[in-house]
């Protein structure tokens, strides 16, 4: 069933029945619904906004489109022979137009076509759980429909910004990440509040487009990553003119004299800018979904946060699943899509009687998002890039693993050929009892392309003695694998 072609004034159904209802039409919800349909079931997708969600229109795609031109220009300037051919700076208008093309100009008709062609039903509206396997959807233009699910309801509602309790913030107009990735003009001066991935990436993107950027972080920039890696990223930001204020608290924000904003810091100083971007993290979008009214054992009343197994099934139920950012485990699009595929597979298997209704699926089966525990890949698309999979040394030891680390500067023939004065760093974390990798980090230009080999090594628990025989091609940056293993002692 789909209502995207609904004509105002015509009769809409008040009751619908399907196998699975998915709340949230972003990339994660699309994957969950798609996998359910592949498993032979019916599914209806419920979405109040654009099909494709945050990643397609306000996060992954537009932010990387903003970053890529600056990275390409810097790469050209980093090699003798090509740098002499560079005669200008970034054309902001062209960058923004290219960014707009990657968001399809915020038109989701193509995504709508995909939903229809895949055989997924679509209801545009805001859904809320009203009972087991039952969802009520309110339309924006009035009216509602109740959808009953024979097998499951999946919450794939994503996450929302988590602004800090900053005095005066509610009284000013400021950018969140949505406004920062969809802006049509470059602000002359920009303050970025938050030193996480979004704040760091967007600081560099707007600085390279011509904005004078100040980045304010309560702790360090990218503090969850190994220090040598984040120091390289900070050096790259500084090279682009970003004024980095780490370990800095804020007291207030207020409108500036003559426009803009003023941000008061805890050391008594005041920053002024034309725009303030607040990028201090996100929280699962679970409010107003009816979870608190269902009395579920697997939902913590104080936080309305569901506890789930590796298939996304909420504890104490045999019908409610939560995946992606909404589950609050790993707030990354690719990992959310992975969770959604596992959930869809589990739902179809349970519907066919191949998996008991409330039994957790076997680890590493297609119905379990096992990699969420220890093999999550993530990339910070700054220049230089930071790419990591698995655990840091500190995380591994905190988990009780007898872990060691081997690290070195990323300096091989391939990196020297890649760019003049290439600077990079690499680290591997080893479980000494099992002699396998549990974490790998790379920092440097274009190191994200090394990440999948590391992800395979960590996920597959490849023994180091066997990994030694995975010969890296010469001359490529991947030769760093050989150097790491040699330093380790192989």
UniProtKB/TrEMBL annotation:
Binding-site list for NAD(+): 194-201, 281
Residues annotated as binding FAD: 64, 127, 157-159, 325
InterPro entries registered for this protein in UniProt: Class-I_Pyr_Nuc-Dis_Oxidored (IPR050151), FAD/NAD-bd_sf (IPR036188), FAD/NAD-binding_dom (IPR023753), FAD/NAD-linked_Rdtase_dimer_sf (IPR016156), Pyr_nuc-diS_OxRdtase (IPR001100), Pyr_nucl-diS_OxRdtase_dimer (IPR004099)
Keyword set, alphabetical order: FAD, Flavoprotein, NAD, Nucleotide-binding
Gene3D superfamilies, A to Z: 3.30.390.30, FAD/NAD(P)-binding domain
Residue ranges of every copy of the FAD/NAD(P)-binding domain listed in the record: 19-335
Cofactor binding comment, as recorded: Binds 1 FAD per subunit.
GO molecular function, one term: dihydrolipoyl dehydrogenase (NADH) activity
Cofactor: FAD
Pfam families on file: Pyr_redox_2 (PF07992), Pyr_redox_dim (PF02852)
Any one GO BP annotation for this protein: 2-oxoglutarate metabolic process
Disulfide bonding pattern of the chain: 55-60
Pyridine nucleotide-disulphide oxidoreductase dimerisation domain mapped to chain residues: 376-481
This protein's record includes keyword Protein biosynthesis: no
Keyword Nucleotide-binding: yes
Record-stated family: Belongs to the class-I pyridine nucleotide-disulfide oxidoreductase family.
Protein name: NAD(P)/FAD-dependent oxidoreductase
Record organism: Arthrobacter sunyaminii
